[in-house]
Amino acid sequence: MTAPSLSNFCIPYLPRGVRLHDDQVRGIRVLLAPERAMQLDAVGDAILSELDGHRSLAEVIRSLCDRYSAPIEQIEGDVKDFLSGLVDRRMVFLAGCDDEGRGR
Which UniProt keywords are present, listed alphabetically (predicted)? Predict the structure, then answer.
């Protein structure tokens, strides 16, 4: 699924078997999925830490804007680009939208 323009009404969540993990040996945060792992930078960690499976993409973006005092235009683009890549890799799923990432 390619989702270049995710709807703000979609609810992003980590599917079963995918989780955030603190790698204490290396001192890094990683996203673990079956047979895959992805090292996260601070931005990726901040975005994924906001996903709870209940809040819409718009609510996640607003929360990040408030936390980092950044303009919504900048945060929105970064969040959507990052999550689109993870949706393509099936490491993030979307509820409340169609297969193209548009709100229902």
Answer: PQQ biosynthesis
The amino acid sitting at 66 is D
DSSP 36-84: EEEEE-HHHHHHHHT--SSS-HHHHHHHHHHHHT--HHHHHHHHHHHHH
pTM, rounded to two decimals = 0.87
Sequence ranges of the domains in the chain? 11-92
Superfamily the domain 11-92 falls into: Coenzyme PQQ synthesis protein D (PqqD) (1.10.10.1150)
